[in-house]
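Minutes, structural biology subgroup

Action item carried over from last meeting: produce the structure token record for Peptidase M24 domain-containing protein (Nymphaea colorata). EB confirmed the sequence was re-checked against the source entry. Recorded below for completeness.
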Amino acid sequence: VWRDRMWPDGWTAVTADGKRSAQFEHTLL
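Output recorded by EB:
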């Protein structure tokens, strides 16, 4: 199961395994 959480910058998502993947702001909007 992949779980993403947004960093305070609103762009970076950190996956459960600790990898950082680029996310676009529309993910949150």
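Discussion: The mean pLDDT is 56.
Next step: EB to file the record with the rest of the batch.
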